[in-house]
Amino acid sequence: REKHLPLLRYESGQEEAFIRHHLLYGKLMRALESNQLSLVYQPQVDISSGKLLGVEALARWRDPQEGWIAPAEFIHVAEQSGLIHPLTHWIIRQGIAQCSEWHQTGLDISVSLNLSARCFDDTELVNHLLETLRQTRAKPEWITLELTESTFMDNPEKALRLVKQFHDMGFRISIDDFGTGYSSLAYLKNLNADELKIDRGFVMNLPDSPDDIAIVQSTIHLAHNLGLKVVAEGIETAAASLKLRELGCDIAQGYYYSRPMPPEVLDLWAASVARQHSFDSPEA
Ligand code: C2E
Ligand code: MG
Ligand code: MG
Ligand code: MG
């Protein structure tokens, strides 16, 4: 009994968080079963031409009583409880099926999917990815898997092995939120990554912050020297976009271009961007 006591004691002020966690856990489990979750897609564009290259899939959950619940909150609950595995399976199936549908309608864009660090405990993940590719007839090179640096903290060898497996299966690999976690340049070197995403924290004060300019510029050089494409996330202004373009960034993502959208709205957005392109291009 004595041994279990610490589990039952909470820091004062923690009771509420504990109760909320359990409430959300139950709700999230039911939401997964009853299809209350959805994916929205945020454009990633060529920073020089504005051409739509791909989208990042972001999970959304609207609870009937509580309304929208932030991904940061429910992903955390999912990670703590093991629900992250069925949740990630759902996200993979939904995102890859959508990508396949876009390709069938002639919209040749990539879809980026976020994988949490906990996904590396999932022994069914590789099978699920293969099975989904087979069922949707999607090509793995259409799909980018976004991983954060924290993925490599707990068990670097295992994580590197799995990432190599994804790479060998043909998926593109992206390092998300670069620079915010425990970065080791050795991981970058051994990772077979294709892309590096500069975190919003380094982007939001551009072009005014000389420190952020220095960090972003160095990161872009490093990435390019390693053969990686660079995506900047969280671009909110024309001035930030211009600065990133000047610094040699490849791909842009952020509210300045578009908020994440449901797939049917993305179709309209993509059509209007494509029209814009045919006006801009000399052949038109
Ligand atoms: P992330 O992967 O770094 O995703 C980028 C976040 O920045 C998204 O927040 C996006 O809506 C937001 N964002 C994009 N452009 C801007 C901008 O210009 N300004 C600002 N202020 N924000 C911008 P969201 O959708 O709330 O997701 C937050 C985090 O939750 C994600 O960060 C990711 O770590 C996690 N997440 C979301 N969906 C999934 C998922 O399907 N699976 C997993 N494992 N994690 C997810
Ligand atoms: Mg991401
Ligand atoms: Mg990110
Ligand atoms: Mg981020």
Automatic annotation (TrEMBL):
Residues 21-274 form the EAL domain. The chain holds residues 357 to 640 of 640 of the full protein. This is Diguanylate cyclase/phosphodiesterase. It comes from Ferrigenium kumadai.
